[in-house]
Design goal:
Number of helices: 4
Shape: globular
Structural class: alpha+beta
Largest sheet: 7 strands, antiparallel
Strand content: 25-35%
């Protein structure tokens, strides 16, 4: 091969990689343009009121685990969501909410927030989606393990919006410690692929498969719940064979059944 051809062959890979990133960015750009994000309200004026989605704990004695996700504040919502976990033990009169909040660092506190209150709150005007619900027998034992996992989260004094560790890194970490939850985090949960303690191989958050990931920047996962998913610079795309859905960066999951 001539030197000229060698040079062009070497340049093909960066060009293809840049092209792939641009394609993956189409989803976030579409959400930014057409997704109805609230780009005007200042965070101090945005609502975090309950949306009334969660069952009234006083009217439901059985134990309950809920996981929610809502678009991140302002333009960040075009790329990803913020996720949190809520639990209610048997006969408890209120929920306990677990999440990571980055600005706690500015107050000299742990980013891991544990509080009581409604679990279905708006995240700065963004309405949350229910990602998982577990109730009934055996759930109290799962709550015990969730609390153990929350206490063991390895980044209580560290936070990065991208590529992690962030709120989705936290939720994914807890899910990996309690794989019986079967939590299928959407591709918009940027940070879920940031594996803790420098690992490059770990369970997928659902516990139904495995993934390789380089600090949340480049990786590949294969699992029964999530399907196959490629992560490039935190932008995840793939195919969920179990639920027959596309997994797209920025957009999330699109059920192919609707196209039949």
């Amino acid at each position: 091969m001539s030197e000229h051809r060698k040079r062009w062959a070497w340049l093909k890979w960066p060009t293809r990689a840049a092209g792939l990133v641009l394609v993956l960015l189409l989803g976030p750009f579409a959400v930014l343009a057409f997704g109805g994000l609230d780009l005007d309200t200042h965070w101090s004026a945005a609502s975090r009121a309950s949306t009334g989605q969660a069952p009234d704990p006083a009217a439901m004695p059985e134990p309950l685990i809920l996981v929610y996700g809502a678009r991140a504040y302002n333009w960040r919502g075009a790329f990803g969501i913020h996720t949190w976990i809520a639990t209610k033990r048997r006969n408890a009169s209120r929920y306990r909410v677990y999440q990571v909040i980055g600005w706690n660092l500015y107050r000299g506190r742990s980013v891991v927030s544990v509080s009581h209150g409604p679990p279905d709150f708006l995240w700065y005007n963004a309405r949350p989606d229910l990602l998982l619900e577990r109730r009934g027998p055996g759930v109290d034992a799962l709550i015990d393990r969730i609390e153990t996992a929350v206490a063991a989260y390895p980044y209580p004094r560290e936070y990065r919006v991208w590529p992690g560790p962030n709120s989705n890194t936290f939720t994914a970490f807890v899910a990996r410690q309690v794989p019986e939850l079967g939590l299928d985090l959407p591709p918009t949960a940027i940070g879920k692929d940031y594996l803790t303690d420098g690992r490059i191989l770990d369970r997928m958050p659902s516990g139904t498969g495995w993934q390789v990931s380089l600090r949340g920047l480049l990786g590949l996962g294969l699992a029964w719940e999530e399907g196959i998913e490629l992560n490039v610079l935190g932008l995840a795309a793939g195919l969920d064979v179990n639920d027959l859905a596309l997994r797209l960066p920025g957009i999330g999951r699109i059920a192919l059944a609707h196209w039949r």
